[in-house]
Design goal:
26% of the residues lie in helices and 21% in strands. By secondary structure, it is an alpha/beta fold.
Amino acid sequence: MQLHRYSAPDFDPYGDRAPAATEPGPWSAPTASGPLRARLTIPGSKSLTNRELILAALADAPSLLRRPLHSRDTALMVAALRALGTRIEEVPGDGEFGPDLRITPTSELIGSTSIECGLAGTVMRFIPPLAALALGPVVVDGDEAARRRPMRTTIASLRALGVDVDDAGRGALPFTLHGTGRVTGGEVEVDASASSQFVSGLLLAAPRFERGLTLRHTGRRLPSLPHIEMTVAALAARGVEVASPEPGVWVVAPGPLAGLDVDIEPDLSNAGPFLVAPLLAGGTVTLERWPEATTQVGDELLELLPQFGAAVTRSGGEVTVDGGDGIAGTRSIPGRDLDLAHAGELTPTVAALLAFGESPSTITGVGHLRGHETDRLAALRRDLAGLGGAATELADGIRIDPRPLHGGLWGAFGDHRMATAGAVIGLAVDGVAVDDIATTAKTLPEFPGLWLRMLGREPSTTIPPAI
């Protein structure tokens, strides 16, 4: 059978009008010259956008996503769903970062195709359970770095549900799903210690399994539990019954998913670097459209930052962080011992802040970060050492021993959160250069422009990528 190959185009969020910050070569991280007085809006949540795209593709009626994220990860998800027969159209909306998306599900998911995941964890973990419902083979592959990310749990769980998966024994990308147009479903045990995405991927597709799904996590700990809660909430909004009779067990009843018009919240984890900035530079940063209630882990920054002396206020859908006069004035950053198991994606941002602490700090509960876009713990250790700092990898985290920092090259290692952590360091250290700021296009292509706008230096670029 012939395979028809679909993939997202090379991602260029700015086209011919790319700002200097995204040109090839190191990006000079701007140093704050005075207190901040910034008001910004952050683009939509990647986690919510890609979950809602999956659910819209499985729904029994069209859906509309308002103010979705437009980034490499979401472009890859859109391309994957289109390859499986879903119709996705850009339609005018009121968001400043690109059009809305109207999703019309297909009556039958189409196989005989291939999916490019890039380096997007949500694509490589969410698409296979959905693609198993397609009729015909589906090849799933990604970037070279993606082939090193753990996928054995997804492969083993689909096999346990009766899906024919050919991975040549690798337990990793690439692999081929031989779909029959249906998945029986039933009970499955998974060890999702490496990523909560293994659980979310199965839960998202479970309503379309003939017997639904009873999923039991067998590992010692489950990282990023709020992301599973986000998945459950998104399912419930579309009328899907999800029960959790005991911790680590989820039961999804089979049934239809409603079409839905969804407002996508700003990405609160991507907001992290902007929220910690006042503690270093001084002054205030106000972010608009902050949700009153959310399942996003970035919301926890509002409780975390006061531990470092920031004043945080919420008013009328806005959040303001006041860092006083910052570390250039009288502000000091106390050392802290933090367990971020539930919010591991905040680790690079928080680690950048702790590098300026008055005493050592530890971040624990984040051993699973070794399996992300890069080994984030090793990357933080290497980057801090390169600027004169000191950090030690722990079995389940990292210890940071603050030392005076100097300029130098900060490696992104192909990881968007490592790139933005370098920008945070650069606020207070002259001469820091991030080797690949363009990797922020994975989830926040507007980052360089927004960062400069925060500093009052030039307006942000808000030209969305083509999908």
